[in-house]
Amino acid sequence: MLTKIYITKKIRYIVLSIILFSINLLHADTSVYKYRKYPHVKKFYKEITPIAIKISKQYNLPAASLLAIAGLESGYGRGYVCQITGNIMSLGAFKGDPELPALTLPYSKTAKKILFDKNEIKKYTDLEYKKRHKSLKKDYRPLKYAGTVHNLTLLKYNKKLRYHAHYTCLNDFATKWICKKSNKKVFKNAKVWLETLVARNSKNILFNMDANNKFIEKIGGMKNSFNYRKSWPTKVKQVMKKAGLVELVDNIENKHMNFDEAWEQK
User: Fold this and answer.
1) What's the domain count of the chain?
2) Distance CA 69, CA 232 (A)
3) Could you list the residue range(s) of the whole structural domain that residue 54 is in?
4) For 150-205, how does the pLDDT look when each residue is reduced to its tens digit (9 = 90+)?
5) Which of 15, 55, 81, 193 has a CA 20 to 30 Å removed from the CA of 63?
6) Looking at the DSSP assignment, which residues form a beta bridge with residue 113?
7) What does the alpha-carbon distance between residue 54 and residue 88 come to, in Å, rounded to a whole number?
8) In this predicted model, what pLDDT tens digit does every residue of 204-248 receive, in sequence order?
9) 72 vs 45, 99, 125, 233, CA distance in Å?
10) Would you say residue 143 lies in a domain?
11) With the CA atoms of 171, 176, 179 and 181 taken in that order, what torsion angle do they form, in degrees rounded to the nearest 10?
C-alpha cells in the first residue's frame, strides 16, 4: 500500500515537472537578438543608429561596429561620464580638448549607479559620496560648459545638443582615430583595409557580418590599439550579435525600414 502511494506521488511529481517545464519553454525568450528585449538598449540605438549609418557611408566605416563599440563603451548610454559628456565611444582627449574634471558624486546601492542629476539624487537616502577622478575622455558639451563642473545634466535633458554631441563623437572616431593620418599603425592599417574592401566590392560590404567582425579584430585586443584587452573584440562582437546590429542597419539601409520596424525583426 505504501509503495503504491509513493509511486502515485512520484508520477504526480513527474507530470507537474513536465507541465512547469513546458510553461517555461513557452514563455522563454526565443529571440536570436536577446539584447533587444531591454528598453534602454532600444532607446540608445534608436538615437544613434541614423548617425552611425551616415558616418558609415561618408567615411567607409562599418555602421554595426560603430554601434556595438558605442554600446559597450557607454553602457548603452547609461554610464555617467557618457551621459554628462556625450562621449559614447569613450574617446580619449587630444591635446587641447576639454576633459571632464574630477567630480564628487554619490553612489546609490538601491539604484546601483553613480548619480549626477540632482532630481535623481534627492530620491535616494543610501548615498555614498566619493571623489571621481578626472576623466581623460573628451567632453562633447558646448564650449561654455565643456571641461567644467557646471550643467552636468545639459545633454540628458536637451535632445538636440545630445544628438550633436553623439554625432561629433562618432565623426571624431572616423576622422581622428580610424584614418590614414593616424599615428597609430593599427588604425591606419584598418582604414587602408576598409578602403580597399569597399573599392573591390561596394559600400554595401560595410553591412556584411564578416567585414564588421574583421574590422573589430583589426582595431582592438592588442597593444597600441583602441582597447588592448584581448577580450575586447569578443565583447564587442557579442554586443553586435545579440543586439542584431548588422541586420538592423541592413534592414534600415537596404530594405528601407524605419528603426522600429527593423528593431522588431526577430
Assistant:
1) 1
2) 9
3) 34-93+150-264
4) 999 999 999 999 999 999 999 999 999 999 999 999 999 999 999 999 999 999 99
5) 81
6) 108
7) 16
8) 999 999 999 999 999 999 999 999 999 999 999 999 999 999 999
9) 12, 21, 30, 11
10) no
11) 150
Closest CA relative to residue 254, chosen from 242, 238, 239, 265: 265
Inter-residue contact 169 to 86 (CB < 8 Å): yes
Exposed e or buried b for every residue in 93-102, given b needs 16+ CB within 10 A?
A: beeebbbbee
Q: What is the DSSP letter of 254?
A: T
105 is a domain residue: no
pLDDT at position 21, please? Answer: 45
Residue 101 belongs to a domain: no
The CATH code of the domain that includes 42 is: 1.10.530.10
The pLDDT assigned to 7 comes to 52
Q: Mind listing the pLDDT tens digit for each residue in 54-101?
A: 999 999 999 999 999 999 999 999 999 999 999 999 999 999 999 999
Q: Which residue has the cell 588592448?
A: 228
- Residue type present at position 63: A
Determine, yes or no, domain membership for 6: no
